[in-house]
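Human: If only I could read backbone structure tokens as easily as an amino acid sequence. Underneath my words sits a plain record pairing an amino acid chain with its backbone structure tokens. Take your time, and here it is.
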Amino acid sequence: MDSLKENSRKWPYFAPFEVVVHNTYDDCWVSFLGKVFDITPIIERHMKEKCVQSLLALAGKDISYWFDESTGDIQYYVHPETGCYIPYCPHGPIPDVSLEVPVTDWKPLDRPPWWMDDQYQVGLLTKRVRPIRIINMVCPFYKEVLINVCCEDTFYRIQERYNLFNSDADSYTWRYMGKNLNMNKTMEENNIPDERDNFTDLGLPQNYYVPSVFLYYNDDLKYYDFDNDECEPVPSNDAIGCPSNRF
């Protein structure tokens, strides 16, 4: 039952450009086999050992080629000299990997290796990044934003990403082609197709057309002071995501 709950967990999706920024010894992520792992604790635990050098060299990158896709375990090969079946470490030793040759000080792990330990997983790697143009209809000429999102992102997740540009994004109605969007669904589920492959087939650039979503401000009384009977001024343009005209 516990494993079933774990498998049904809703992991957030990350794009490669979000993983790659975590590339230091005190903030180290890697992706492999569609998963995103925060291996900072592993780096800290083995900081003075040679086995972390391979991880640090590939911090923020995808290391799927280290692993067997069918088992989720690290790849193995037959050593040309000893004939032993040993782990494949193309860039040198890594934490939790057995020694290459039979030795007397070998001992098995008393826990899963880090790449099979879900405690380090922080999310999933997106299958594809999609561009989307978000236009704030309060001031469309000032607040048109083009961002990249994961194709698996719901519009609630896209709204979270857009909060970087407008902290009141939840005070808007999101619409596409004259219809309100279902914020619990993805772009594809909201009938916003990804046509970039069609553009490529026709010899057109992939950015020939980027889907546009329009935001309409709702009077949700967010800035109304219910303790004050007097009329309050309308919030500034900055408060609703539109810069005031300053000359």
